[in-house]
Design brief:
Elements (H helix, E strand, L loop, with lengths): L1 H40 L4 E3 L5 E3 L1 E4 L5 H14 L3 E3 L7 H8 L8 E6 L3 E2 L6 E2 L3 H19 L6 E4 L14 H19 L6 E4 L3 H5 L8 E5 L11 H8 L2 E5 L11 H10 L3 H10 L6 E5 L4 H8 L8 H8 L24
Parallel strand pairs: 3-4, 3-12, 4-5, 5-8, 8-9, 9-10, 10-11, 11-12
Antiparallel strand pairs: 1-2, 6-7
């Protein structure tokens, strides 16, 4: 009986040790894969913002990710050399991102955050704060709470998530909307002065909302931009180029629809690149403005493609070919902004 017990214990111990060795091999393989990914991807270029801050032109987006998914995606990105992380208060994943960046030098990560409008009908958080003073105080409070949730003291870039108009509004900014936008911009100016942000900007702002915002001119405006929207929707990209505002494209692959575009597939075949790479390169190569882009990747293979964009170009014929695409439309019927719309013009 004793011999049987001893033999059983040894079998259990052997199985445990084999399992540990198996986990160690998997961990080593993952580490080697990340090192290979970083060496093959190269360094992400930066763009200089209006106030001299240098921002990596590719950011990892985290919209729609819960805390665990965001933590894993950010950790993978940092390991691969993608150091720009994009989040928002109303993504509700700050805890996961905070865990992912906790053991990385703060100076080694560029963090973009966003706070929601005071008038926010799509939510969450749903609210209708129509007093300018209350709106400013709410925005100041949310800047502080979002920093605390991430475990940091300063954003590299802080963006207003959208204008204070109903979601999917298709009209220009009114005086009422402009008044609330200006209240939030005062809070952002205060955050900049207090060192809570290195640069400030906006997202989903059409030309009329930009015009009434006041000083300083935003460093960045983040808009929907992908093959199918045209290279200069509502003349906004050109307008921002003239004003020195960096255009940052979100949904650059239209939630995957760009990958199924026959036009994109044709250009990709000629260049021997993936459809995703062609779609992203088309955004970054826009000559009308300084450009940047937000990508989403929770798999190493996708991230590798997203980082291999800088040693080749789409030729002028290919760019013109893709500029003329009218599909896919993406979100909000192809409009660049979900909170306002101006007449279609060019600058």
């Amino acid at each position: 009986m004793l011999r049987s017990l001893v033999g059983s214990e040894m079998c259990i111990r052997d199985r445990y040790q084999r399992r540990v060795r198996g986990h160690q091999k998997i961990a080593m393989a993952m580490l080697l894969l990340l090192l290979l990914l970083r060496s093959s991807a190269g360094t992400v270029p930066t763009v200089e913002l209006r106030n001299g801050v240098h921002m990596p032109i590719i950011a990892l987006g985290t919209a729609g990710y819960d805390n665990n998914t965001a933590e894993a995606a950010v950790a993978m990105a940092l390991g691969a050399g993608l150091t720009h992380v994009h989040t928002a208060l109303d993504y509700f994943n700050a805890a996961g991102i905070g865990r992912a960046i906790a053991n990385t030098s703060r100076e080694a990560v560029f963090i973009t955050g966003m706070t929601p409008p005071c008038l926010h009908t799509a939510g969450p958080p749903v609210r209708n704060v129509s007093s300018a003073s209350a709106c400013e105080e709410l925005t100041l409070s949310e800047i502080d709470s979002s920093l605390k949730a991430l475990g940091i003291r300063q954003y590299d870039l802080l963006l207003l998530h959208g204008p204070n108009a109903p979601f999917n509004n298709t009209a220009p900014c009114t005086d009422e909307v402009c008044g609330l936008n200006q209240a939030q911009w005062r809070a952002y100016r205060a955050a900049l002065a207090l060192g809570k942000a290195r640069a400030i900007g906006v997202s989903n702002y059409c030309g009329s909302c930009l015009a009434c915002l006041g000083d300083p001119t935003p460093a960045v405006n983040q808009i929907q931009l992908h093959v199918g929207t045209g290279p200069d929707p509502e003349g906004l990209v050109s307008r921002q180029g003239v004003a020195g505002v960096v255009t940052q494209g979100y949904s650059p692959l239209a939630h995957g629809a760009v990958l199924n575009s026959s036009l994109v597939q044709e250009v990709a075949d000629v260049l021997n690149k993936s459809e995703a790479q062609v779609g992203l390169r088309w955004v970054l190569q826009n000559p009308r403005s300084k450009m940047a882009v937000v990508v989403k990747a929770d798999k190493l293979s996708y991230l590798l493609q997203d980082l291999q964009l800088f040693d080749w170009e789409i030729d002028s014929k290919g760019m013109t070919f893709l500029d003329l695409a009218t599909q896919p439309k993406g979100q909000q019927g192809g409009r660049p902004c979900w909170g306002c719309q101006d007449s279609v013009t060019t600058v």
